[in-house]
Amino acid sequence: MPLLATRALTKTFGGLRAVDALDLHLEEGEILGVIGPNGAGKTTLFSLIAGSIPPTAGAVLLDGVSMLGRPAFKMVRAGVVRTHQIVKPFPNLSVVENVVVGALHAGGRATGSVRDRAVEVLAFVGLEDRTHAFPGTLTLAGRKRLELARALATAPRVLMLDEVIAGLNPAEAQALATLIRRIRDERQVSVIMIEHVMPAVMSLSDRVVVLDRGRKIAEGTPAEVVNDSVVVDAYLGENHEGGTA
Amino acid sequence: MRSRIRGLAPTPILAGFLLTGAALAVLPLVLELSIYTHNLMTLTFLSVAGALAWNWMGGFLGQVSFGHAATFGVGGFVAARIVLWAPVPAPLAWLVGGLVAGVFALGAHPALRLRGPYFSIATIGLGEATRLLFTYWEDFTGGSSGLSLPIETALKHRLYWWGLGLVVLVTAASWLIRRSGLGLQLLAIKADVDAAADLGVSATFYQDLMIALSGAVVGVTGGMWASYFSFIEPNDMFGFDRSIGFVLMAVIGGVGTVLGPLLGAVVFVLLRQYLLASYPQLYLGVYGLLLIFIILFEPLGLTGLLRRLWQRLSALRGKV
Predict the structure, then answer these.
(1) Contacts of residue B6 in chain A, CB cutoff 8 Å?
(2) Most buried by CB count within 10 Å: which residue of A48, A240, B84, B115?
(3) Where are the CATH 3.40.50.300 domain residues in chain A?
(4) Distance CA B80, CA B223 (A)
(5) Which residues 153-182 of chain A have a CB within 8 Å of chain B?
(6) pTM above 0.80, yes or no
(7) Residue B1: inside a domain, yes or no?
(8) ipTM for the complex shown
(9) B176 touches chain A (CB under 8 A)
């Protein structure tokens, strides 16, 4: 049984089918890349899985159990957490306090005091020397690490990363990619990541799903997906040089 | 590692607070307080407790209420009715009044769908609706002619300590809330409800909790007020300027800080007393100006000013 799965998950906004009868699955210990052109429904997919918005139809299953009707805060307690593409630190709380808010909701999956766990997570993401700073004083890379730390503090089983690497310089991007791999290897967290930075997705992902207009148009190992003509068409249009038209 | 989450309880402040409390507690025993002073101080205690409780919602949670007079009035009238109905000790009546007010405050729950100023506007409506409802419910509140309670001089005298005790209790509660995980979650909700939910914070639960707690404490002060003045009247108890008063006290002292509303309430009550006696026609105008200046120059009110002063002093001391 997959750790997390969606069954015919659908979300319509008026006439627009943002996510269209999507079947996905995430295995324990897997890093799943989700790619697709702008407007493909990737972030909507995350919002649906995270419980931030209710689906029009279909369901999200965790350990085979339907999570239908669970709002975001309950999904976190069940072990499914997301980060945001536009990071949202609490500006009125210090870095460690930001992480404590997440650490309070580990739902019995973690041991030790909330404070200790927050400090441990900060060290893990490399923010230990900014513990008492305020988020406004961090660089973008720092705020992305904070966003990661807060999510990790909830001791998730499934971590959904929405473009954590985008917008960083190559050195920072490389460091963050290493961090994502360590999250899986050292903390046994399964990861779904949306990313536009192709080298990162291709090197990190065990499997890649390609979305276009809310539908899954391809799925496979990174190597299979990049050579899939349907995928190339979706990104570059059907009449590009060497296309299938 | 048991370090403080943030340096909120420097020992001097705690010591100062306890000393002030102890001094106020023995004051009437040592000095012969005039009735006017006794009145004013008791009134100040009730306002301080109310302002601190308002701040749980308006400050910590960022849910600025312009309708807290509703809970003040409900607490007051329920306590008064209990005292008139059965020979129960007054503190029990205040407590029940507070509990009823806390539950009543949950009536504001649907307004939580609104955020920021929209929530505040809704609380104005709820507060005014409550005032009208209770003014017309003459069987319960006596309508515009109000309710009279038996005058109990001894109780009135003791209310000084009851009020002071409530202040100590509510201040301690504010401190504990702010320093705990609960306080962090409230501040997280204030910063960004959705981001808080994405980290597992049940925003609605904590909002309801703080509405009820805040309303309950203000309700208790309403009951004490009723006992103190032995006469209450809906248009005064539920009055809009009373609701504004809570906001002003917190803003003057420093919204969202632990001790700000305490300072603010003391200043507010004393200033109002002075203005009403000397310049009644300027009274509201002065508050208006004060608000403008605070918002423009020091959004954290007196607390902000004190912090600046403290930093200046520290800097000076560093130079010498």
Answers:
(1) 94, 97
(2) A48
(3) 1-79+158-168+188-245
(4) 7
(5) 153-154
(6) yes
(7) no
(8) 0.89
(9) no
